[in-house]
Amino acid sequence: MRQPLIAGNWKMNGSKSSAEALLNGVVAGSGGLSKTEVAVCVPFPYLHLGEQLLAGSSVRLGAQNLCTESGGAFTGEVSGSMLADFGCRYVICGHSERREYYGENEASIAQKLTRATESGLTPILCVGETLQQREAGEMEPVIAAQIDGVVERIGIEAFAGIEIAYEPVWAIGTGKTATPEQAQAVHAYIRGRIAALNGSIAEKLRILYGGSMKPGNAAELLAQPDIDGGLIGGASLSADDFLAICLAGEQLAA
Ligand code: 13P
């Protein structure tokens, strides 16, 4: 049984004071969780706050991006070792917003995955199709290309230290969630694709679902056999909503 991981992706939201309140709220409400792993991926400026406020709790800290390079003259970038220095465990790589607005592709995402693992971080690799691609029947080839393009560059063994998040682009921030059956089908497809290369890595691989996961739909999504957690955007900005999703994971893991 894979331990569920519920990770919040705050995206570019919050202020010093709201971040502090949210971190404190998540810590206060997650004390009783023992079967579900909880993480919050905060904006860079709040990493220090996260490191301080999560200390002594079981809530893990994460970031939302890192540089393709390990250090040096790359103005405005943040390295994996800097994230590790602030106590990060996780870093999101290849989120669809970064693919769409910042031109990330399999080549740069593969570099980021390597930089992350070199720094002792666990990357959360995001994949997912647009509505247009789904309607054109291209969902599987799109997901396959997103996975294969990375596997070709970093090797299947690297997936022993990576989490995958399936995030259908049409479900992100739209309130339109994939049905549990739709999500399960893609999760099974992803696991099968990895299994064709390495069965034991595929068996242990956690595949999170992301896209309008909320307290009201989390339990039925998390109950699917190949859904091992959630990557939560909007609902992670409310401690109560985020903790309700964590509790759904905890109850299913029980
Ligand atoms: P929402 O939960 O707001 O749809 O965002 C999902 C997401 O993009 C998490 O990375």
TrEMBL record:
Its EC number is 5.3.1.1. The active site is at H95, E167. Keywords: Cytoplasm, Gluconeogenesis, Glycolysis, Isomerase. It catalyses: D-glyceraldehyde 3-phosphate = dihydroxyacetone phosphate. It comes from the Bacteria. Pathway: Carbohydrate degradation; glycolysis; D-glyceraldehyde 3-phosphate from glycerone phosphate: step 1/1; Carbohydrate biosynthesis; gluconeogenesis; Carbohydrate metabolism; erythritol degradation. The keyword Amino-acid biosynthesis does not apply. One of its GO terms (cellular component) is cytosol. InterPro entries: Aldolase_TIM, TIM_sf, TrioseP_Isoase_bac/euk, Triosephosphate_isomerase, Triosephosphate_isomerase_AS. One of its GO terms (biological process) is glycolytic process. It is found in: Cytoplasm. It is an enzyme of class 5 (isomerase). GO terms for molecular function: triose-phosphate isomerase activity. Substrate binds at N9, W10, K11, G173, S212, G233, G234. Involved in the gluconeogenesis. Catalyzes stereospecifically the conversion of dihydroxyacetone phosphate (DHAP) to D-glyceraldehyde-3-phosphate (G3P). Belongs to the triosephosphate isomerase family. NCBIfam families: tim (TIGR00419). Homodimer. This is Triosephosphate isomerase. It comes from Thiocapsa roseopersicina. The gene is tpiA.
